[in-house]
Structure formats: structure tokens, C-alpha cells
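As described in the Methods, two query proteins were run sequentially through the folding procedure within a single session, without resetting any intermediate state between them. The first query and its resulting C-alpha cells are shown here.
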Amino acid sequence: MEQMRILSVNTGQAEPLQVGGEAQLTGINKRPARSSVHVSELGLADDAICDSDHHGGPDQAVYVYSANDYVWWSQALNREIPYGTFGDNLTIAEFPDDLNAGDRLLVGDLILEATAPRIPCRTLAAKMQDSSFGLRFREAERPGVYFRVLNAGDVAAGDPVTLVEMPGESVSMLEIFRAWYQLQPPPALLQRIMAAPVAERAQAKFSAQLKAAESAGLKDS
């Protein structure tokens, strides 16, 4: 198997996009950088985050998408889907199909830690000009992964990437992605999610569900 490497480093400026009939500013329109880009704890330099309630922040500072999944989408949609289309900051070749929360990527001095899968939103559907794309993205189960930055560094297209798996028990990105859509995920799964280093927004959602399950006396069958 070939080593993972960055194929594209993508950043976006705040630009208007029609979302639900309204013009909203968004940074989803990522374009490949022509040179190296510095990555700090809040993400890539000069990369716009317009909806800070749902995007960005220390726990979701960098969004990574698989180059193999771009190939899959290009075939599924019968048109070329350029890197950065889904708002990914880093497009990586040979990126694993699934990661566990806490798994790390090393790129030179940069150290990233996996925290959450990407949950599709109306902005992505608007970018794809397809109101049903959120459902299609969910069904494809190719969400990409958000990372927190444990050590800052510079990245550029062509950089090799090393995966360091988290030791011990964790929870996978696909488990979190599937649980996100369940009205009441199994308490045991919620406990595993809460014990893992997942993003703060996901922690808040699943913590509320776990408290509700405990209050209702629910147990795994």
C-alpha cells in the first residue's frame, strides 16, 4: 500500500451562497493553495469560518477528506468533483476508510487528532446545487474527519502523512456518524463516545442523549 500523502491543501474566503433562498456568507468554497500553509490550533491560515456555532473551533480545526472518496463521488455523480469541493482543508491519498477518535496524523511538525465525522448541512447541499445531497452524503457513509491540532506546523501538497493509532479502546468515526442520526443510540455506545476524545459539539449532543437514557432507565438489550 502506498504511503498517505497530501494531494491538496485547500482554503476558502468568505463568499455569498444561496442557502434556503437566502444569501449567506460561507467559507465552503475551498481552493487549492499554491504554496505551504500554516496550521495553528484554530485551523489553516486565511481560511474563513463564517458559522462558528457549527464549524471550526479548536476541536474541529482541520477537515480531511479522502482522495479515494473523491474518485467514488466523481463516478457516482458522473462528473469530476475537484478537491476542496466538500470544504475539506486537506485532501489525502490513501486515507483510511475509517479512523478512531484519538487517532493521529503526523505531517512534519504538524500533529492532528481525529475528533468527529463531518455531518452534512444545508450549506453543503447548496454548494452541490442539490437539496437532497445531505441525505445522499449520509447514505454514502464517506463523511471525512475533523481533527484538532495538537502541534502547529506548515503543510503543502506532496507532504507524506503518517498515521498513529490511538492505543486502547475508542470509538470509530463511522460509529459516531451513524449514532448521530439515531433518536436514541445504545447507552453503551454513548458511554464509549463520551469516554473518547471526540469534539465538544458531539460531546454535548451525546451527553444529553446519555443523560436522557439514564433518566429513562434504558439499558442495552
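Immediately afterward, the second query was submitted; its sequence and C-alpha cells are:
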Amino acid sequence: VRSDYVEEVTDQDLVEAAINGMLTSLDPHSGYLPDDNFKKMQVQTTGRFGGLGIEVTMENGFVKVVSPIDDTPAAKAGLQPEDLIVTVDDVSLVGLTLAEAVEKLRGPVGSEIRIMVQRTQDEPFEVSIIRDEIKIKSVRSRLYDTIGYVRITTFSEQTTPGLMNAIDDLYAETDGNLSGIVLDLRNNPGGLLNEAIRVSDAFLEEGEIVSTRGRDDSDIQHAYARAGDITRGLPIVILINSGSASASEIVAGALKDHRRAILMGTRSFGKGSVQTIVPLPGHGAMRLTTARYFTPSGVSIQARGIEPDIEVVLARIEKVEGGPVREEDLRGALDKGKADSKIADDDAADDDPADIDYQLARALDLLRGLSVFDRLTGEGHS
């Protein structure tokens, strides 16, 4: 190659390509990280980095979106889980390695990128996105009556402290009268394993959280929960979908197996493999798949994902014009003024953001039902 290839190639390029080719032939998640990419990855786990704000993988030679990250250019541009990115600035990504494709997606903050997207069997369409510095706030929360809603967008070093603060704030807002928690892990691509374990531990009193098993029978590691539930035994509904991957699946699987939460939504992504980063001093690092994740019941997540307890597909809630005729609609009905006031209050409630998110609305309804049942029976959840 040195003497006869049509163009001059450096030894470093050849060696890096050889290493990367060897690793990427193993599975979609193994690969070589040049020094620049290795440093960017280290920055990403702290919750701040540059780019579009998407987690991607390779599938049959195509770059596939695992999930867009909330409030990033990719999410605002409407990219969705399972979208295929076919070209970048009219250059095809087909046949490139994942690292090469990601490098083409990156660029200076403020620069524009044009990508061609294939969604299901629809015609491909072009999207223009302005690259930006991605500052991830990994935990967001809000209150729906007495039900706390907590969304985790990714598992970084900020996640567990953010979760603790969110739960404390929700209790404070309700004067300690929270009735349930919705934990939203939809479109969460994962992140740090230790953060997934800490988040699971926050809701569990005891038991195994996850095990990792390598090639040798003796290469098994277990993570266990310690006593202490930050929600004090409140009922929990976890929302998952096809964009919930890796660390998200560890949390969902652990709380499902321990019957600590009800899972709602659609089957998760199914990334149940463990990657070990092996630094190569002065030459970046290699990312090597070394183990598989198993839920507490001994089920592998890999290529299976986590099945929800209650399947709720994504849908949009829209008001229907007209509707049924009731007593208050009749001319001269008794107490009509009181009914009109009640209708106005109901219309105001319909403006709640949860009303346009069908999966979230179903989760809230389930928790409200449990709360009503508790009041009727005088029983509590633990």
C-alpha cells in the first residue's frame, strides 16, 4: 500500500482504519475512537457537548436514529426514533462506519447541515438543521394536580442529583401530598451504567437491579439496591417506547421485575450490550462490547427490549366538533348557569399539555384511578 496505492496514505490512517474495520465487523457498537472523538465522548458524559442532539446506531449499513434528545436542534427539526439518515449535504452515508458517519454529522456551532431522511416507507425528505452546542438538562419535572411528572432525557453525571431535587421539589409543591409519579423514559438513548443503577436504586428498597455477563461463566457482575425509596412507596408509571435504550431499559426492567412500577407505552429499543472503553495512550481509544445486560429475572435485554405491562401506542388527541347533546344544552334547562360555569372550567382544563400526549394522559389516568381506589378502600400503596 505504501509503495503502490494510487494516493499517498499515512501509516496512522492505515492502522486506524485496520483497527476500526476489525472492531466494526463484530457488532454495531464496537469501534475505534480517534483521539478527537474520544475526548468528545468524555465531554458528552458530563452533559455538555456540540452537535445535533441525536443518538444514532448502524442498521444494515444505514445510520438509524435511536432517539433525538429533548430541546436540541434534532428534536426541534422533528427527527424521530427509527428515522434513517441517508445523506449529509448530498453525500451518501451508506457504507460508512458509524464513527465516520457521526463525524460528518458534527461541525462548528452555528453551521448548517442538510440531511436526507427516510421514514418508514414514505418518500425521503430533506431537513436543514443548524448545529448547536448541546447542553443537556437530563431531568425535568412538573406537577399534574397531585401527580408528579419526571422526565429523564439521558443518563449523565447530572441525572441522579437532578432526580433527587425533582422529587424533593414535587413533594414541597404539594405539601407532601403527592399521589403518584410518572417517570418518562421515552426517547432516552441511555448513557452511564452507574447512573442507571443509581436511578433504579432510588426507587427500590432491596434486590438485584441488573447483572452483566461476559464471555466466561465466571465473568458475572451484579448490582443490588440499598434500602431507601425517595418516593416513599408511591405508585409509579414508567413510559417507554422504541427510543428508550440501554440505561433506560435497565431502569425499566429493574422496576418492572420488582413490581415497583407499571410500564406503559411500546416495546423499548433492545440495546442490552455493555461497551468497555479501552484507552490507547496517544491514539484515542477502542470501544469493545464485553458483556450483556440481564434484568433481575434473568432476561437478556439484547434485541428483545422491554415489553410494557400496558401497551399504549402513540396517538394524538383532538377535540371533535359538536359532540353529544346533554340536559344543559336544552333551552331553559334548570341550573343552566351553573352548568355553563362548569363547562368553562372543563374547557380550561383541556388546555393542559398532557391532553395532547396520549401516552402521558393514559399514565395520569391510571394513577388517578389508583388514588381514587385508595380513598375508597382506605388502603395505601407500598
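The first strand starts at residue 31 and ends at 33. We note this only descriptively and draw no conclusion about the first query from it.
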